[in-house]
Amino acid sequence: MLNRLNKILEKCMPFLTPTGVLVGLLGAAWLHSFSFLVPWIFAAMTFAGSIGSNFKDLGRVMMLPLPIVANLIILHLVMPILGWAAGAYFFPGDELTQTGFVLLFVIPTGVVSLVWVTIYGGNIALTLALILLDTLLSPVIVPLSLSLIVGAKVHMEPLDIMGGLLWMVVVPSIIGMLLNQLTKGKIKPMLGPKLAPFSKIGLFVVVSINSSVVAPYLKQFNMKLLEIIIVALVLAAFGYIAGWLVAHWMKWDREVTIALTINSGMRNLSAGAVLAISFFPPPVALPVIAGMLFQQILAALFGQQLGKKYGMTSSVSNPAK
Length: 321
What we know:
By secondary structure, the protein is mainly α. 78% of the residues lie in helices and 0% in strands. α5 (65-90) packs antiparallel against α12 (223-249), α6 packs parallel to α15 and α7 runs antiparallel to α8 (124-150). The longest helix is centred in the middle third of the chain and has 27 residues, at 124-150. It is globular and about 50 Å long.
C-alpha cells in the first residue's frame, strides 16, 4: 500500500511543489498558523532521507574528488555570485530581494535530488556523498556566504541561522547515518519504504505552509513579482546547465553527468524558505518561493533530456514492479 502510494507520488513529483504553493496561497488564512511545525516536519524529512547512508559514504568523496569539487564550486561560488549579480542588476536598491536571490543559491543541494538521480540512473554514491558533505558544511557555508555578500546591508543573525540548519538538517542526518551504521544498513529496507511517501507528503506540507506565510506578497501580483519569478526560473535552469556543461567538458561518464547536472540545479529550498521566513523579513522569501515553483519541473525536464541523450527511460514513466 505504502509502496504503491510512493510510486504515485514519484510520478507527481514535478508538480508537487507548484501545487503546494497554490494550496498555500488559497489556504493562507488558516495554514500560516501552523508555521511552527515546519522545522519539525523538515527534520523528519531529513532523517528519512539519511537512513540510506552512513559515515563510510564520506570516504567515497575521496574516490571521486573532482566531481565533488566541481559541484561545490557551482553550488556555492558560481550560482551565489550570479544570484547576487542578477539581484543587483534587476532590482537595484531593493536589498531584501537581492538577499532573497543570494539565499536562493547559497542553500545546499537537496535530499530530494537523490530521488531524481535514482529515477534517471545517475551515480547514487556520488550523490549521497555530496548531500552528506554539503549538508554538514551548510551551517558554516550558508551564514558565512550571506554575511560576506549581504551581511552589511541586511540585519541577520548568523548564529541563529547556523542553529536552524544544525537542528533541521545536520542533527537528523547524523542520527539517520548512525542508525544505518549501527544496524549495518538494515534500517533502510525496514523503514525506508514506510517513510518514503511521508517524506514526499511532508515536502508538500512544508511548501504549502511556507507559501501561506508569504501569501500576502504573492497575492499582490505585479510586474515586480513577475520579474522575480522569471529571473528565478532562468537562474535555476542555468544551475542545471552549468552542471551538465562541466560534466560534458570533463568527459565524465553517464552516471556522473546525470548526478552532477541534477545536484547542480537542485537546492534544499524548503530549508531555504524556512530560513528566509524565520530570520528575514517576508520579501526575502519571494525569490526562494519562486525557485520552488520550478525546481522539480526543471529536474524532470533535464532528467528526461539526459535520458533521451543516453537512450534511457526513467523509473517515473516505468515504475519498478
